[in-house]
Amino acid sequence: MVSHMKTTVNLPDELLREAQNLARREGTTLRNLIENGLRTVVQQRADESRFTLEDASVDGRGLQPEFRGAGWEHIRDAIHGRSA
Question: Contacts from 28-32 at CB under 8 Å and sequence distance 24+?
Answer without folding.
Answer: none
